């Protein structure tokens, strides 16, 4: 099933982009309005974020949805 590897790839992408901004996971979660535990689950592939949540992540990173999903 492709959904688990896709979630993991997406989480790795979010983590990579977050680290490039210099933000801790906790600070980034606060910026997004998410609990740190939810952010952790997104980054490890344990969560299946909604399209709305993905848009929040992209906005917090200052990039488009297309850029966030690029390469997945």
UniProtKB/TrEMBL annotation:
**Per its UniProt record, what CDD domains does this chain match?**
HTH_XRE
Q: Name one GO molecular function term.
A: DNA-binding transcription factor activity
Residue ranges of domain HTH cro/C1-type in the record:
14-68
The answer to keyword Disulfide bond applying to this record is: no
Give the GO cellular component terms, alphabetically.
Answer: cytosol
Q: Keyword annotations for this protein?
A: DNA-binding
Name of the featured protein: Transcriptional regulator
């Amino acid at each position: 099933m492709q959904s688990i590897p896709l979630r993991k790839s997406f989480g790795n992408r979010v983590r990579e982009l977050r680290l490039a901004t210099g933000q801790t996971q906790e600070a980034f979660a606060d910026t997004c309005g998410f609990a740190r535990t939810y952010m952790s689950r997104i980054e490890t592939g344990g969560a299946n974020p909604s399209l709305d949540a993905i848009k929040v992540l992209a906005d917090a990173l200052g990039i488009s949805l297309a850029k966030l999903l690029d390469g997945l």
